[in-house]
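Late entry, evening session. Most of the bench is empty. Finally got around to the prediction I had been postponing all week. Sequence below, unchanged from the version circulated by S.P.
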Amino acid sequence: MSNQNFTRGRINFNGRVLWIGLVVVLVVWLLASTFKFVPPQTSAVVISYIAPGGYRKEPLQSGLHLLIPFVEYIETYSISNQTYTMASQASEGDLQRDDSIRARTKDGQEVFIDASVIFSIDPEKVVDLHIIWQDRYDEGLVRPTARGIVRDVASQYGVEEIVSSKRSEMEDTITTLLEEKFAENDLVLVDFVLRDIHFSEEYAAAVEQKQIAEQQAQQAEFVIAQKKAEAEQARQTAQGQADAAVIAAQGAAQARLIEADAEAKALDLIAAVLAKNPLLLQYQYITKLAPGVQTIFIPTGNQFILPLPSTTTPTPTTPTVPAQ
């Protein structure tokens, strides 16, 4: 009898534990169904079986929220920035294949554009986005919208404009159009990045040949300019030498004129002195002889090698008058 009572008591105890466990699980499940925590940088759509249209009109922002168990549940969406990349390299883009944007320029050239779209979900319009797109907004909205706008804008420019002078303008135009289109579909455009532009192999080869030709032309222009500079330098050197020769000749002529003028003035002074001192010439003649000469022997009948200057002035002769 005691064993039966013990067994019956054990069964009752196990039954109570099981019921308590079920109640605890039910309470926890009810609490989990009733209170929902929305993480930071997240917005939630409340799907309700009793609300009009099946959704609460207002989304739930970050924090703890109360729901009706068995009747309401939530779908969460990140409202932080997201990036969708379309690139030729599979490792860089969202799709593991060549996903660059193929476009045709206004001059008929085919270009391949790599781009990234940085965007976020409008936290106030999460419900509308969920109703239309659910979690397909990146593939269903972002990708096709960006590709279509890039193609349309690229077709308005020439290929050389896209890669040089008009690239920034094209990027700004794409950004403006994407902002408008995303705003219409409950998204916020943060930025559009034009990552790279590729060309077909044929056009790339043509561009390379053109660049080589331009470099050769620039090199030829440089050589011509260098030769002109060398010729100009030689001309200026020759001109400088000619100018120097003229200046030297003018200087020599001027010096000779000064010297001749000085000699003429000196002769005038000598003549004036001799006119006043006739014996001075004889004195100068004698002083120019060797200092040790005391006597000079002259062969009979020979004159001085140089005639001795006269020490007397010639007397005027009176003309003879014939007798009558």
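Two things to note before I forget:
Confidence is low (pLDDT under 50) at residues 318-324.
The radius of gyration is 60 Å.
Will write this up properly tomorrow.
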